[in-house]
């Protein structure tokens, strides 16, 4: 990773260094508790010592590393890692060898959050929220490739969270988006003919009817179907 290889774009280089170091930690190449020899790491990556130190500051903010007098820079225990950080979520999903069960953990989170979100949306959704959900449904129906289908699905679930009128729930999209996109891509590969429109349509119509019970039930059915898809993906 020589600095000249990125055409002098320092910001791009910085991001590459952070990601390489993060992946080494997440994969266990640099295990929990290990001391990081900064000069050796700098020589290995072929970048400046300043660039490595700046990257370590980012990883420190995400709870991955810490520095102490006499001990030096070391990898913190996994329990200290900020697993809800958007970059951390993306890094986890970019390497399936890190946590192969991560998709199942994501599904558990969705099972807790989204039925309740659908119930709230049915009570609180305004016209603007329904319009956003309608646009996402239209995009889902017209999607002609996996990329478009994934984008439409993400837009729907993002709009659903926004329709709750709860800012903290809306921020849950940070947790779900990367994992949900990865899950969608895997499902489309295994079940390319599977049609997600009917299950999402039932959720939307229950929200439009301001029926919280029906909205919650429709979301639970959607997630049950997602669990079946996930089981097939893991099996294949």
Provide a descriptive summary of the structure in words.
This protein is mainly α and 236 residues long. It has two domains: 5-80, Orthogonal Bundle (Arc Repressor Mutant, subunit A), CATH 1.10.10; 98-235, Up-down Bundle (Four Helix Bundle (Hemerythrin (Met), subunit A)), CATH 1.20.120.530. The protein has helices at 10-26, 38-45, 49-61, 86-93, 102-124, 127-142, 146-162, 167-170, 173-190, 197-208, 212-235; strands spanning 35-36, 65-68, 72-75. It has a three-stranded antiparallel β-sheet. α2 packs across α3.
Secondary structure category: mainly alpha
Oligomer state of the chains in this structure = single chain
How many domains? 2
The first-level CATH class of the largest domain is given as Mainly Alpha
Element pattern in H and E: HEHHEEHHHHHHHH
Main-sheet strand order equals 1-3-2
Mean pLDDT: 85
By CATH, the superfamily of the largest domain comes out as GntR ligand-binding domain-like
Instruction: Characterize the overall form.
Output: elongated
| Strand segment tally | 3
What does the radius of gyration come to? 21 Å
Kindly estimate the percentage of residues that lie in beta strands according to DSSP. Answer: under 5%
The helicity comes to: 55-70%
Main β-sheet description: 3 strands, antiparallel
Give the CA-CA distance, first to last residue: 35 Å
Question: How many helices?
Answer: 11
Under CATH, the topology of the largest domain is which? Four Helix Bundle (Hemerythrin (Met), subunit A)
Keywords: DNA-binding, Transcription, Transcription regulation
GO molecular function, one term: DNA binding
Pfam family, one: GntR
Domain HTH gntR-type: 11-78
């Amino acid at each position: 990773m020589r600095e000249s290889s990125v055409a002098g774009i320092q910001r791009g280089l910085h991001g590459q260094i952070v990601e390489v170091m993060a992946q080494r930690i997440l994969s266990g190449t640099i295990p929990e508790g290990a001391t990081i020899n900064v000069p050796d790491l700098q020589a290995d990556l072929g970048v400046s010592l300043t660039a490595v130190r700046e990257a370590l500051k980012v990883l420190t903010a995400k709870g991955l590393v810490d520095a102490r007098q006499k001990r030096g820079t070391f990898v913190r225990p996994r329990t200290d890692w900020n697993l809800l950080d958007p970059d951390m979520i993306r890094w986890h999903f970019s390497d399936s060898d890190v946590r192969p069960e991560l998709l199942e953990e994501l599904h558990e989170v969705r099972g807790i959050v989204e039925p309740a979100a659908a119930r709230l949306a049915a009570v609180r959704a305004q016209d603007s929220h329904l319009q956003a959900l309608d646009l996402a449904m239209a995009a889902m129906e017209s999607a002609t490739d996996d990329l478009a289908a994934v984008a439409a699905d993400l837009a729907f679930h993002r709009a659903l969270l926004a329709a709750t009128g709860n800012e903290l729930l809306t921020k849950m999209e940070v947790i779900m988006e990367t994992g949900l996109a990865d899950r969608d891509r895997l499902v489309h590969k295994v079940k390319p003919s599977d049609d997600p429109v009917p299950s999402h349509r039932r959720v939307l119509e229950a929200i439009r009817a301001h029926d919280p019970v029906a909205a919650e039930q429709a979301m639970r059915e959607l997630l049950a179907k997602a669990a079946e898809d996930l089981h097939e993906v893991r099996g294949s």
